[in-house]
Amino acid sequence: MEITRNDLLARDGKDIERKAGSDCVVMSMTLQDPYTGESIDWRKQQATEVQIDHVMPLSYNWQMGAARWNESKREQIANDPLNLIPVDGPANNAKRDSGPASWLPPYKPVRCSYAVRFAQVSLKYELPVTEADKKAMLTQCGG
Length: 143
Known about the structure:
- By secondary structure, the chain is an alpha+beta fold.
- The protein has helices at 5-12, 58-64, 71-78, 89-95, 111-124, 131-140; strands at 14-18, 26-32, 39-43, 50-54, 84-88.
- It has a three-stranded antiparallel beta sheet. Strands 4-5 form a two-stranded antiparallel ribbon.
- A hairpin with a 6-residue loop joins strand 2 and strand 3.
- Helix 5 packs across helix 6 (131-140).
């Protein structure tokens, strides 16, 4: 099953309102943003206020070895719910394609869990991380 934006909004949002007659289309919800710690009252009319982030960015994956993968495996990591989370749009824009050594969530209490999730994606897909990113991840979790 392909994971969609609506699936992720419904998974992580609260007070979900769906389009009349639809089991899928999320029209509004409240998101406790993991990157900023703020609560976002989201409406479909302001779609970009909440973006879906690849925790381990696709360009990072590419540089770490996904360039040698077949299309099916690249699609798998791109659509893996482990690697996808709804987040504050401006925070996601600031992250761009950075690893943990270059960017961490502004909301400090989630930095360890963010680092752990980055590591989980790396391990699941057998992708290395840079030494700088490894050090940054360990630092976030007291290692």
